[in-house]
Amino acid sequence: MSTVGVQRVWVVIASLAGWLGLLAWGVLGIVQEVRVLPSIWPHIAPPPAPPPTRGAIRAADGTPLAISLPTGERLYPLGASAGQVIGYTERFRDRTQNRVVYGAGLEGVERFAENKLAAGQDVYLTLDPVVQALAERALWAGVAAAEAEWGSVVVMETQTGRLLAVANAPAFDPATKRGQPGNDPRLLNYAFRYLIEPGSTLKVITAAALLEEGKATLETRVEAPMQRKVADAVIRDVVRHPETLTLAEVLAYSSNVGISTLAEALEPETLYRYFERLHLTDPDLLTPLYVERPLVNGPESWGPVEFANATFGQGLAITPLHLAAAFNAIANDGVFVRPSLFEPAGAPQTARVFQPEVARALREVLSAYNAPLARLEGYVLGGKTGTAQVAVDGRYSREVFTALYAGFVPADRPRATVVVVLYHPRTSIYGSRVAAPIYRALAEGLLAYWGIPPERGKLVNGE
């Protein structure tokens, strides 16, 4: 190799050595920087993780009742159906991002299951979408026909206590209504949040207590004039009837005089104990949802008039849900079942209140004397009507009443207890005229849905 060639080789080697040296120095610098970074990282906040998509609310069969999109928008696929039960979330416009932001639940399940929903967990309800639709169709038509201020229907599965439907009218769509519930009472769930006097429907409970305590039979006779005086008050009947009635006929004619007279065989404490065992005084009937606290005074505050009034459902106030749960004990052969709205419901919480023969005997009476507008050809239906006065400004109004019907579907082998409540109906104040047809329409739909055929050759309620 020539001298020139050797020189070129050394030049190349020197250049490579310089380049490698710079590379090594750079790597060393990077390593040193990396060693320093851990001391800096704690002072650098990582980007916030996106909040979990709000959990869905679903019916028992998985039908979505409320769902959220990845954008946070809350949707209610069934619209107004079960709106007051589902509730709604807060909604406001974020002007910085020029979009609507959905926040925490303000009412209904959206509020009382907030922790689970906010964590992205789905919540399942016992509601059956078909039963809910049937109840709403019957109720909404009935409220319109009766020109009532509002109405509610509760459908409770007899043996399990699962709430298959909770319908309210007027309805609202959770997707459109917003704000605090106090600003609009229609946003509240009438079945859970409104107190009503149960009126004559409670005569069934008084009759059951008389039978259970051995103080009367269905054939026990009582003198029942159209009115009688108790202390300084006068108790009156509405429907004309013979002056002597059996207990069964007292229920048939809905005699205030008859039931209050027969009930004098009971101690006030005894009747109140049955109210307690049927949870008519229970403020925590459906936890964690809020249910209005009943206004049922204890026997220590009852005089003769208050006791007489209590026997036919006046002077005390409960929610439609409380009435459904208590009446369901008659459907369930005397066993009280605590109502449930959330799945899995678990084993029913039960307690025997009446003997089976007491409950069955009363169902037979309520079927035999069922209101004509509550009857359905080929089926055994039964229940009790009610018309209750409403206190306005501390006095019973002569214009505002509550019309009720509490019954079973079917009455001979109940699968569900149904309670219908209409507040301030204008066309008629009587449950037999405005509430009973709602029960019948709903019963017809339920029997078809359950595939229970009518019995051939059987007239209305076996007549």
From TrEMBL:
Domain Penicillin-binding protein transpeptidase: 151-443
Subcellular location, record wording: Membrane
Signal peptide segment: none
Domain of life: Bacteria
Annotated EC: 2.4.1.129
Chief location of this protein within or outside the cell: membrane
Keyword Glycosyltransferase: yes
EC top class named in words: transferase
Molecular function (Gene Ontology), one example: penicillin binding
One Gene Ontology CC term in the entry: plasma membrane
Protein name: Peptidoglycan glycosyltransferase
Entry-linked InterPro entries: Beta-lactam/transpept, Beta-lactam/transpept-like, PBP_dimer_sf, PCN-bd_Tpept
Keyword Hydrolase (UniProt): no
Alphabetical keyword list: Glycosyltransferase, Membrane, Transferase
GO biological process annotation, one example: cell wall organization
